[in-house]
Amino acid sequence: MRAFRSLSLAMTRGFLRDRMALFWSLAFPLMFLLLLGSLFADAGTPKSEVVQVGAVSVIDDAPAQTRAALDDALDITRTDDRDAAIADVRAGDADAAIEMDGDQVVLWYSAADQVGSAVVQGTVSAIVQSANLAASGQPPTYTLDPQQVEDESLEPIQFFTPSLLGWAIAMGAAFGAAANLVVWRRDGLLRRLRLSPVGTPSVVGARVTTALLLAGMQTVVFLVPAVAFMGLQLTDSWWLSLPLIAAATLAFLSLGLFIGSFSKTEEGATGLANFVILPMAFLSGSFFPLDGAPAWLQALSRVLPLRWLNEGMSDVMVRGQGVEAIIAPMLGLLAFAAVMTALATRFFRWDPA
């Protein structure tokens, strides 16, 4: 136990004294969080831009409640130039133009933007139907009561924090393990540890402990400023992310050991780790959601361990789900760790080739 404590302390001090390791493991991912959190702090559902030509009674005379809903969905500008309004729609500068021709509401839209035009058509259709119902003097038979499943505090920072934290944990564990193994082998430290009375379990345990401490530091560095200054609101079950983070640390630590087991140079190890982790981060939704990605890309994403970590942390940190949300991701990450550890053991070398 004394050897284990000494090795753990020495490895932790070595990491804290390595400024480059601190930057890439803590400061660099935090910069992404601050950048994306600032860029999307006021982001919401974009409004459709509509040009109103002349007087449009269904909009101008809409009840206050309908008018408030319109203001939330549409950004309406007024003009008397019908041709200029249609030209704006054709050029993509507006999603639609609307005018009244007697009792008929005319909506001009562009087929080039099918999504934007469909949103405007749906909104205007609802306005016209509401106006027709009001003109009939009959009370509505059915009403719509939309309810958001998340609380009103939902902000973009609550999506970015779990995903970027997952990327930081993957990068810190994999890069550190791969580089350390190559450097220790090159400098003969592995040979000296093997000849010393310190057992292999103590060496491995100390390295795992150091990786877990780093993951804990990354979690604190991400969550504290996100909660204090960026509006992140954690659910009551956020603490369930801690065992998930521990399992992810083991998974990516084992990946780094596998890479370091056959790499001959520190540059080669970090380059290969970057080659694996960076595409995985993009494919796992660490930087942007994959909802609009092709089906084959989403299927590929679901087999990646970083996707399991991101989804699990989002479920417990943002969506407030319980322990059932982390069981499958944890089992997957631990299985990945077992496979990578077996491969690392197979290719491990004490001395340079």
* Cα shape: elongated
Domain module count: 2
Q: Radius of gyration from the CA trace?
A: 28 Å
Number of strands: 4
Mean of residue pLDDT values: 82
State the low-pLDDT regions, or none: none
Structural class: alpha/beta
Tally of helical segments: 14
Please render the helix and strand layout as text:
Blueprint: H1 2-17, H2 19-39, E1 48-53, H3 57-60, H4 64-73, E2 74-79, H5 82-91, E3 96-101, E4 104-109, H6 114-136, H7 157-186, H8 189-195, H9 200-229, H10 241-262, H11 266-283, H12 295-301, H13 305-317, H14 324-347
Parallel strand pairs: 1-2, 1-3
Antiparallel strand pairs: 3-4
Helix pairs in contact: 1-9, 2-7, 2-9, 7-9, 7-10, 7-11, 7-13, 9-10, 10-11, 10-13, 10-14, 13-14
GO molecular function, one term: ABC-type transporter activity
Organism: Mumia flava
Protein name: ABC-2 type transport system permease protein
Written overview of the protein:
The chain is α/β, with parallel strands linked by helices and 353 residues long. It has two domains: 48-148, abc type-2 transporter like domain (abc type-2 transporter like fold); 156-347, no CATH class. It contains 14 helices and four strands. The chain has a four-stranded mixed beta sheet with strand order 2-1-3-4, sandwiched between helices. Helix 9 (200-229) packs across helix 10 and helix 10 (241-262) runs antiparallel to helix 13. The two termini are 32 Å apart. GO terms for molecular function: ABC-type transporter activity. This is ABC-2 type transport system permease protein.
